[in-house]
Structures are given as structure tokens and as C-alpha cells.
Specification:
Blueprint: H1 5-9, H2 11-30, H3 33-66, H4 71-97, H5 104-133, H6 149-153
Length: 156
């Protein structure tokens, strides 16, 4: 795929999933059900966005391998992304089964799993960043530094 869809999509699930947990913490500390309801929606949207980002990442995988990126690095990133999606799907399913109502004990367990999910999400983003910034995945070569950009754009 020539259009870099994966790097556009990944930012949405990252933000939505973090804010979901933040809303849960706010809802608990402020005793506001509206934050808990918002957390549920943010989790669902974040998971949906994560699935879309994973699909786009899968489509970009061949190009990264052809560019010389080690398959093991790509597989690590992909495995972490899949683990994150599974954890977040379990969280969403548990919320739906519990009808978004938690006892103190179940909420503590939920937050523990959510923390693992966010740490996995951080690791996923970190490995993705390494693929781009250390290994050049998805990066096209820039014009030579001594050649003015205007010349390179106009074929000069």
C-alpha cells in the first residue's frame, strides 16, 4: 500500500484507551456514573480503532520487510499489538457482561488488567516507534542534503 494508513490510525486507539482508564479513575474518585459510561464508549472506540490500525499495519508489513526491516522486529511489534487488542477486548467484554457496574473488588481487578493492557500498549507503541525512527520502516529517502528541495521537487 502506497498510502501510509497505519501511522495515521495508531494515534486514535492509543489516546482513546488511555483516556478510557482515566475516565474510570475520574468516575470512581468523583462518584460520577457519566465518566464510567464514557469510559465504556472510549474503550469500545479504542478497541475498534486498534483493530483498524492492526489491519492497516498488516497491509504495511510487506513493504517494511521489502525495505529491509528484520522480520523479527516486525513480529515483536505485531505480537504486542495483538496482545493489547486481546486484553482490551477482554476488558470490554467484562464491562458488557457486568453491565458496566463494578464492585470494589471487580473494579480493582479490572484496573489491574487495564494497567497491564496500557503497559502492553506502551510497549507496542515503543516498538513501532523503533521500527520507524531506528530502522526506517515506512520512511522514504529524502533528497540529498546539498540539493535544494525545490530542485528535487521539480526534477532539477
Amino acid at each position: 500500500m502506497d498510502f501510509p494508513l497505519h501511522p495515521i490510525l495508531v494515534h486514535f486507539p492509543i489516546a482513546l484507551l488511555f483516556v478510557s482508564v482515566f475516565f474510570d479513575l475520574l468516575g470512581t474518585s468523583l462518584s460520577r456514573e457519566s465518566f464510567r459510561e464514557g469510559a465504556l464508549w472510549l474503550l469500545g472506540l479504542g478497541l475498534t480503532g486498534g483493530i483498524a490500525a492492526a489491519i492497516a499495519g498488516g497491509m504495511a508489513e510487506d513493504a517494511a520487510e521489502k525495505a529491509g526491516i528484520a522480520e523479527s522486529l516486525i513480529e515483536t511489534h505485531e505480537t504486542l499489538a495483538q496482545a493489547t487488542l486481546v486484553i482490551m477486548a477482554v476488558l470490554l467484554l467484562s464491562r458488557l457482561l457486568l453491565r458496566n457496574r463494578f464492585s470494589t473488588r471487580t473494579f480493582a481487578a479490572y484496573l489491574a488488567v487495564a494497567t497491564v493492557g496500557l503497559l502492553t500498549l506502551i510497549a507496542t507503541g515503543h516498538t513501532g516507534g523503533d521500527l520507524v525512527y531506528k530502522h526506517g520502516a515506512g520512511v522514504t529517502t529524502a533528497p540529498h542534503a546539498s540539493q535544494p528541495i525545490a530542485q528535487s521537487l521539480h526534477g532539477g
